[in-house]
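Pasting as-is:
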Amino acid sequence: MMLQHFHDVTRELLTVLQDKKIVERDDRITRITELLERREEFLSHIKPPFSDEELQLGRQSMLLNQQVDQLLVLQKQEIQRDIKELNQKKKSSNKYTNPYENLATDGMFYDKKN
C-alpha cells in the first residue's frame, strides 16, 4: 500500500519536473518540495517482505526515481546559473554607479611644498 503511494507521488513529481507550463519558479519549487516531503514520509513506512507485485512496482519506482534525480540536478543547475548571472549584474551595476570605489591607492604620494 505504501509502496503504491510512493510510486504515485514519484510519478506526480516527475510530471511536475517535466511540466514547462509552470512558469513561476517559486510555485514549481514549492510543489516539488511538498512532493519530496510526501515521498520521504511514504518511504519511511515501506518495510519488507515484499510480494512479487510490490517488487515489480519497486523496480518501476527506482527507474522513475533516476529520472527525477536527473531533472532535479538540471533544476539546481538552472537556479545556480541564474544566481551567478544575478550576482554579475549586481557587480556590474555597482561599478557603473560608483566607478571609483575599487581604485588601487598604492603608489600615491602627497607632495607638500612650503
